[in-house]
UniProtKB/TrEMBL annotation:
Residues 282-350 form a coiled coil. One of its GO terms (cellular component) is mitochondrial inner membrane. It is found in: Mitochondrion inner membrane. The chain crosses the membrane at residues 376-394, 406-427. The lineage of its organism: Eukaryota, Fungi, Dikarya, Basidiomycota, Agaricomycotina. It comes from Leucocoprinus leucothites. This is Magnesium transporter. InterPro entries: MRS2-like. One of its GO terms (biological process) is mitochondrial magnesium ion transmembrane transport. GO terms for molecular function: magnesium ion transmembrane transporter activity.
């Protein structure tokens, strides 16, 4: 860069060499700068015997956001100057965003979203329980293609239970030979003699997953319970879901109840902020519980799906099964989820009522402060009236009252009386404007 700059000046400044002490008159140097200022676009700053000066000159093809400094002898005066280019402003659109920045941001977001949608990982990790209720495989890795071929699934079905694709909507899908369940922390594939539990994020070592696996093993081994294998597995799944919802409901209820009791005693910023946080958490929990209820209601509304869920009887080639047993099972859990949703709505209603009451209290306090400010302003106006009289006598003009023996006492009483009368009149007018004197 410096070589290009040196070549530029060697070709344009006659008799001047950067690395030599060639003599050049100051006037000719200024003339050269004047010519260069017309053709170029940056700033040239230089020093002549300690005196800082600036002159416009540059060549944008040689310098790009860089600075080059060097010294040379001109006549008998040493000149120190630097050449510094201005960065070119990036063009922006109507919203003030640099051109190309919006496209880059969209591309980055699209790439992040597509990472979860591309089949980059063809393996799934799952735990398998056999027909006797024993754990056959723990956290084994299986190919998606093998699972599809072995269990008669569609490729799109695995998206509902694939741990690499988070899905917040609970679903119960009925297929020809299996039932796919994706509810909260459980993602399972239930068959007539096998249960596959797919590992989800953070659930492999959690206490909730361990308790569910233990209960599932115990329930599948109860062959004399009078229920089919797949229904015993489905019962354990729904029971674990209900336990998770109830545990979270109790936790949120205790949090919100304790905070509402604290707000009855004292209202401060931290508690009000916690109330907002708990309110959001409560709404999120209520929505998840509603989605679970809707998933159960959707299955109950489809008689064909409930008939297809009798996998054991279909394998035995029996007549069309009566889905009364399954309907009672699903309705029982649906009613329990409905009770949880109702309780969550009740707590949410209490939170909203508390927020409204707190806002009313804060509004009342603000109005009290405004009323106090108005009263202080009225008192200030009355005092200002008395100060006006004192200011009139402070002009040092002859009024002949200074010779009167009682003039000072008379004017003091007059000023105080005027201040009191004006303040009382303004305050009386303010009190009449209020709907009731009980608010004062």
């Amino acid at each position: 860069m410096q070589t290009a700059f040196t070549t530029f000046f060697r070709n344009n400044v006659v008799g001047m060499c950067i690395n030599s002490n060639t003599l050049l008159t100051t006037s000719s140097f200024y003339s050269y700068l004047a010519r260069q200022q017309v053709r170029h676009h940056a700033n040239l700053s230089y020093n002549i015997q300690g005196l800082p000066l600036r002159y416009g000159a540059s060549h944008s093809s040689y310098i790009n956001r860089t600075a080059v400094s060097f010294k040379s002898l001109i006549g008998t005066r040493r000149i120190s100057w630097s050449f510094k280019s201005k960065p070119r402003p990036q063009p922006t659109d109507s919203n003030g965003i640099p051109d190309g920045q919006e496209d880059l941001t969209k591309a980055a977001i699209l790439e992040k979203v597509m990472k979860g949608r591309q089949p980059t990982d063809l393996m799934l990790r799952c735990t398998i329980l056999d027909a006797e209720g024993n754990v056959k495989t723990i956290s084994g890795h299986f190919k998606k293609s093998d699972l599809i071929a072995e269990h008669g699934l569609n490729a799109r079905d695995l998206r509902k239970i694939d741990s690499q694709v988070p899905n917040l909507i609970p679903t119960i899908l009925v297929r020809k030979e299996a039932i796919l369940v994706n509810i909260l922390h459980i993602r399972a594939l239930v068959k007539a003699d096998t249960v596959l539990l797919f590992d989800t994020y953070g659930s492999a070592d959690s206490r909730l997953h361990s308790v569910f696996l233990y209960h599932l093993e115990h329930n599948l081994k109860l062959k004399g319970a009078g229920m089919a294998y797949e229904f015993r597995a489905l019962e354990s799944i729904l029971l674990s879901v209900m336990s998770a919802l109830e545990a979270e409901m109790v936790f949120i209820r205790n949090l919100v109840g304790g905070l509402l009791a604290e707000l009855e005693d004292n209202i401060d910023h931290d508690r009000f902020k916690r109330l907002l946080h708990y309110s959001r958490r409560l709404v999120s929990f209520k929505n998840r519980a509603k989605l679970v209820e809707e998933a159960l209601e959707e299955v109950l509304a489809q008689d064909e799906d409930m008939n297809a869920m009798y996998l054991s009887e279909r394998r035995s080639d029996l007549d069309e099964p009566d889905h009364e047993e399954l309907e009672l099972l699903l309705e029982s859990f649906s009613k329990q989820v409905e009770e949880i949703v109702t309780e969550a709505e009740s707590i949410e209603s209490n939170v909203q009522s508390t927020q409204e009451i707190v806002e009313l209290i804060l509004d009342s306090n603000r109005n009290a402060l405004l009323a106090l400010d108005l009263k202080v302003s009225i008192a200030t106006m009355g005092i200002g009236t008395g100060a006006l009289v004192a200011g009139l006598f402070g002009m040092n003009l002859t009024s002949h009252l200074e010779e009167h023996p009682y003039a000072f006492y008379l004017m003091t009483g007059f000023s105080g009386g005027a201040a009191l009368i004006i303040a009382w009149a303004a305050l009386h007018k303010y009190l009449e404007s209020l709907p009731s004197k009980n608010y004062i």
